Amino acid sequence: MKKIVFFDLDGTISDSGEGIINGLTYAQNKLKLRELSLEEKRSCIGPPFAPTLSRIWNVSFEEAEHIIDVYREYYNVTGIYENYLYPGIEDLLKYITENGIEARICSAKPLKMVKIVLEHFKIDKYFTSLTGAQMHGKYPGKSVLIGQILDQTGAKAIMIGDRKDDIEGGKNNNIPTIGVLWGYGSREELTEAGADYIVTDTEEIKEIIKNIL
After folding, report:
1. Judgement on whether residues 124 and 199 belong to the same structural domain of the protein
2. Integer Cα distance of 143 and 149 in angstroms
3. How far apart are the C-alpha atoms of 17 and 9, rounded to whole Å?
4. Alpha-carbon distance 4 to 189, whole Å?
5. Are 132 and 110 in contact (CB under 8 A)?
6. Of 81, 109, 132, which residue sits at a domain end?
7. Number of folded domains that form the chain
8. Contacts of 78 (CB under 8 A, 6+ apart)
9. Which of 38, 106, 143, 170 is the most exposed place for a label (fewest CB within 10 A)?
């Protein structure tokens, strides 16, 4: 049976916070929006972007999409590279692929940007497929994206991420979930979402994979 490890990207594979926060500040200043606190900006890292910005700034979905267009003026040029690979990630990816398991990205980030990030860190070679949002258009959510792949492959799988939508994406498809504490979600958020495992380093993930996949 095929085995798959699904990874979230932002806050799980890499720390993209600096670039995202700087991009939000750029859009906020250019559009003269309410100044967000650092905590509010950090809460935008990981979940689907347009609904989050719509809620944070109390604007319509269409207005949130315009904010994202302005945000990308900064992020797509500079912010995407203000990004750092978490310790142990490449070694974990090597372990997964060397054991005949597929690594796949399942991200709310636009697919084009996912590819740039993975290529920037030279870890794209470890992934058999990438799923993400389109630059414009509705994002179906991780539950749908994971479900489509499982329906196509019949694989045994787990989901790894740092926010509740990652955990919910796995739980809604009846696969085990691992919440990581080095990202942007708290232990409380991951616990409330129903994470089967909560870890503080990549060595713990290796042990879980060895035991359940």
Report:
1. yes
2. 10
3. 12
4. 24
5. yes
6. 81
7. 2
8. 19, 22
9. 38
Neighbours of 50 (CB within 10 A): 22
- Cα separation, 190 vs 197, in Å, equals 9
Name the nearest CA neighbour of 164 among 137, 144, 141. Answer: 141
Residue type, 117: V
Instruction: To the nearest 10°, report the CA torsion of 52, 93, 183, 6.
Output: 40
Q: Torsions phi, psi of 100, nearest 5?
A: 75, 20
Q: What is the pLDDT along the chain (213 residues), one digit of tens a residue?
A: 999 999 999 999 999 999 999 999 999 999 999 999 999 999 999 888 999 999 999 999 999 999 999 999 999 999 999 999 999 999 999 999 999 999 999 998 888 899 999 999 999 999 998 876 665 556 788 999 999 999 999 999 999 999 999 999 999 999 999 999 999 999 999 999 999 999 999 999 999 999 999
* CATH number of 155's domain: 3.40.50.1000
Range of the domain at 25: 17-81
Please state the separation of Cα 21 from the chain's center in Å. Answer: 15
Q: Whats the size of the chain, residue-wise?
A: 213
- Name the DSSP letter for residue 125: G
Q: Identify the DSSP state of 79.
A: G
Q: The domain that contains 60 carries what CATH number?
A: 1.10.150.240
Burial label, 208 (beta-carbon count in 10 A; 0-12, 13-18, 19+):
middle
Q: What type of residue sits at position 65?
A: E
Stated pTM of the model = 0.90
**What Rg do the C-alpha atoms of the chain give, in angstroms?**
17
